[in-house]
Write a structure and sequence with these properties.
Length: 170
């Protein structure tokens, strides 16, 4: 019964996240947070929910919706912290985030995906350590791209510094 209910809940949240009305942007943000917290609360379903989120992210053509799925992933990771229940899915999550990072083309999505990766790095440094070099390579690429705004360059620099300090402490 719960599986059927979970499908209904995920479908409803997906509908809200994909709503195109500008008037509902706050509701859409709250739905993303709700999705993340749902993933944490149902940690025994975390793998299924994360996979679902990443599939929805990949199939979405709208950056604003893709951003909401990353917000949801971040909230799930943030709320879960270092819970052991999430340990089995962290490699999947990290691989998915790495794949997303490698294919991004907007600064907003970059920053949110890196926030997710930093959260994985803080709570599961052993999982992150295998992706450190690839992640840093991508960040350096964005950092040295002279066409990017100064604010993005500074943000990427800060994220790089955080990542490096986490990596050194492993």
């Amino acid at each position: 019964a719960l599986v059927k209910q979970l499908d209904t809940i995920l479908s409803t949240l997906n509908d809200i996240l994909n709503e195109s009305s500008k008037l509902l942007s706050e509701l859409r943000q709250e739905a993303a947070v709700c999705l993340g917290l749902l993933c944490t609360a149902l940690s025994y379903e975390a793998e299924r929910i994360f996979k679902w989120m990443f599939v929805k992210f990949s199939s979405s053509t709208r950056d604003e919706v893709r951003l909401l799925y990353l917000v949801a992933a971040y909230r799930a990771l943030e709320a879960a912290g270092e819970r052991k229940a999430f340990s089995p899915v962290m490699q999947l999550v990290m691989s998915s985030l790495q794949s997303i990072l490698e294919n991004l083309d907007t600064p907003e999505l970059l920053c949110q995906s890196v926030r997710c990766i930093l959260q994985v790095a803080r709570c599961y440094p052993h999982v992150f350590s295998t992706n450190f070099r690839d992640t840093v390579d991508i960040l350096v690429g964005w950092h040295i791209d002279h066409t990017q705004k100064q604010s993005l360059t500074q943000q990427v620099s800060g994220q790089y510094t955080q990542m490096f300090s986490i990596f050194l402490s492993v």
